[in-house]
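Duplicate of #3305? Posting structure anyway:
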């Protein structure tokens, strides 16, 4: 993984990304790059197309125009590992915590020994070892979201897409899970695109923030967040960046 602040060759290249639903132009000629191992947050107004944007990147929906390249090749879910964490945690109720985290790796067809080795590591990192044999209906909402996050990291994704994963959780839990997410990211080196409504959250987690406009949606601004970690919400530079992004959003 590139050191924070270091630039490396682009992992993800998005060129002229355009998405229409019929007459409705949602994404309007979007261009950006993401470096290997980079953590990028995306903020934008309600309904501007954030989810559409992630769905397009993961190739869940067809795009109208443009290219998405991963390591220089057209993004292809069969060849690339693109992982997704949705706003609502998605767990299979008939599988234990452990087997839910394993699910993505099973789908990828990883050998069982490899799956077990990665499970030990990840369950430990997110503190799920103790409850690995419980079922989803026996654990809390934040635990469920941890499963979804762990499952997404476990496949060593080329690109990890997160759509407001902590939007539903209370503030204290969110802080905790954000730190856990950062720790996973730092240890496993995945490339992360993280959507949030919460500007403070974006400044806390990301190395760079893409601010989207209203529809038809373009990238309105890019804000670098070059602050040491763990970040301090009261640090004057943190506050300055938060205000700057808020200002950009005020003109939506
Ligand atoms: N399958 C679809 N068919 C037609 N229009 C759609 C479809 N999916 C989304 N849209 C429209 O595209 C626009 C962007 O929707 P999208 O859900 O991507 O926005 P969002 O930024 O994720 O919103 P939110 O902040 O509510 O999560 C909206 O105007 C929505 O109504
Ligand atoms: Mg959305």
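Output from current build:
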């Amino acid at each position: 993984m590139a050191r924070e602040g270091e630039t490396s060759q682009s992992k993800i290249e998005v060129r002229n990304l355009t998405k229409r639903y019929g007459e409705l132009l949602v994404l309007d000629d979007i261009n950006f790059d993401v470096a290997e191992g980079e953590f990028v947050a995306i903020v934008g107004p309600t309904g501007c197309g954030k989810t559409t944007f992630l769905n397009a990147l993961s190739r869940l929906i067809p795009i109208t125009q443009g290219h998405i390249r991963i390591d220089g090749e057209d993004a292809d879910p069969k060849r690339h590992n693109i992982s997704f964490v949705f706003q609502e945690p998605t767990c299979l109720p008939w599988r234990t915590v452990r087997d839910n985290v394993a699910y993505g790796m099973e789908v990828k067809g990883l050998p069982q020994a490899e799956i077990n080795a990665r499970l030990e590591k990840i369950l430990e990192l997110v503190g799920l070892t103790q409850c690995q044999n419980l079922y989803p209906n026996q654990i809390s909402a934040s635990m469920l979201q941890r499963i979804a996050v762990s499952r997404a990291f476990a496949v060593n994704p080329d690109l990890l897409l997160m759509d407001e994963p902590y939007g539903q959780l209370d503030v204290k839990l969110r802080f905790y899970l954000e730190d856990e997410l950062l720790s996973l990211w730092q240890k496993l080196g995945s490339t992360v695109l993280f959507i949030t409504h919460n500007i403070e959250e974006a400044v806390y987690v990301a190395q760079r923030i893409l601010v989207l406009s209203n529809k038809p949606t373009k990238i309105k601004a890019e804000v670098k967040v070059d602050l040491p970690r763990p970040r301090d919400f009261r640090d004057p530079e943190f506050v300055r960046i938060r205000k700057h992004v808020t200002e950009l959003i005020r003109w939506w």
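Confirmed duplicate; merging threads. Residues 10-81+157-250 form a domain with the Rossmann fold fold (CATH 3.40.50.300). The longest strand covers residues 10-21.
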